[in-house]
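Much of our argument rests on the idea that a fold can be written as discrete symbols. Part of our work consisted of pairing the sequence of a single chain with a tokenised description of its backbone. No coordinates are needed to read the tokens, only the vocabulary itself. The record that follows shows the chain in one-letter code together with its fold in token form.
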Amino acid sequence: MEILTNILILLVLVLITNIISHYISFLPTALIQIGIGLVFSVLVKDFKIEVETEWFLLLFIAPLLYYDGAHFPREQLWKMRASILGNAIFLVLLTTIVGGYVIHWMVPTIPLAAAFALAAILSPTDPIAVNGIAKRIRIPNHIMNLVRGESLINDASGLVAFNYAVAAVVTGYFSLKEATGDFLYMFFVGALLGVVLGISMNVIRYALRDKGINDVVFHALLQILTPFIIFFIAEELLHASGVIAVVAAALIYALVKEKTENLIAQEQILTDGIWMIMIYTLNGVIFLLLGLTLPSAMHTLIANEQINNWRLLCYVLALGTFVLGIRFVWTLVFNTITYYVMKNQENDLPSIKDAIITSLVGVRGTITMVGVLSLPFFTESNEIFPMRSLIIFLAAGVILFTLLVATIFLPLLSEKVNSPNPKNVNVQKQRMITGAIQRLKQERSEENTEVVYELINEYVMMLHLLKSKMKDEQQLQKYNEQLKEERIKALRMERIYLEEYCSFEDVPALLIKQIHQSISERERAVISGSSHIVSRKLKQVMQNWRRSYLKGHEQEALSNTEINMHFYIFSKVLEQLNQQIKTEFNPEVLQHVIYYYKRLVRKFEFNLDRDNSDELTEAQEVLCIYAIEGQRKAISQMLLKEEVTQVEAKELRRFVNYMESVVLFEYVE
């Protein structure tokens, strides 16, 4: 019960910190979460959560890296492979070796092996920690892609170097040959295992689909469990790098996802939703835990009168400056060599400003915290691990230092991000809709002409709706007034055709009264601008409850009469609107109303013609998928021409996936 209570408290704190972050937008959310965790730990002294390093890596690092790898643009990963591998491996080793000697020189009480351990665990970067800052400023894409790409690998290299340094402290023995061999084994076997397991998991998924197991919830759960399974197999069974295995499997998944996105839209929508919740929660909990552990790490040192508190602060500042400084020097030198020696002159000449931004973006975070908290208390000779509290304090201090420095200086060096221009997004969506229309025209044949033109008409209506949203405030107000006027006219026509239908058909008085009430409610909603959804749903429930007292054949007869009546009324109104639009000077507003009534007619037409609906539904479903493919092609073309960013393209694809999911649900269900 205590564990469950603690988990619930952490989740509530995640929500609270994000609310605070909304109002204190100049601070990154990670920094706020560390602060709230620190305050909460001081106020609630009995609150403790202890997580072993292996479990922490499994529960937090595995899913986070899998998500990052699966959503990292493969083209950028390949294009920047030299920079990413250089930062993820060589910069980590350089920071470990040089940093170890610097730390030992600066704080002689820390043994050299322990200094190497601290330097190694300070080498991995954490792009998640800087995401809050990146939302407010325009950090160059190639820099953010670099730090995200290197974080996929440097977590593993940093942890391996850290573990060997700790082992040297604990056992008093270290072999460079053995360490190098083990590192290569863990890296390459982990990568190979990740590829094999990634392919195997996808084969299993599609084999289950072939056997008829198509439940989207089942397949979404299988996808969510994949990184945990792969990490566990790599670490526990083959003693390879679970981190590298998870990243390799994520890249395989990203490749398969690109090829099958059209076939599993509903599954993808559900999975993406679950992932977003998980990533949101895990990121928050990680930095809360960091804040919660700081007081215990600080208590021993502050209470120790032999260690001057100001000197501790100077150690943190010096060490933080070192890790950022060595990253700056490496970046400037590496980029210059790449530009001149390797003739890689596609990008601009490396600048000092870019090197500074790259170093500041290298904030330390999750892996540093996980590793340093895993330090053993005793060595094999039963001696206390040398300067354990000081090492933990220095690591925590560097995390806070890099976060604060990035928060202060990155906005000064980068452009502020303007709010997304809705008109630009609107234009991109219009191009997607146009791509869908073009694809539908290509698929038209004698057999499906009617269905094709019906779907094209729907997309044309969507174009009109999107264009209407591009107006300025004055134009939009005028448009809304005209739309309100036309909808009221259409509702009055509904009353006229209701009376007309009742003149030649015998309709129960109760049903006539209910439809009159429905028209009146929609009329009030149009005038007031409110949909009154709750009140309408309550009335619908009451109406169904009253009908439940009728006999079975009476209920069926009443339902059929209602369907026929609605179909007649809406068809007549639509017919009048189509006649009216031919003489309309500005048909845009009327197109909006026509689209609304076409949806209503189609809904009741489907109920009337159930016998022939299966064939129609199949044709519509196939054509809708073709239209979705046309939209995806339009996105790819915009991305290729650099007319949209990777982030914008991702949002547009999510919009298309949502549309596809709705289409499939509408026709299949």
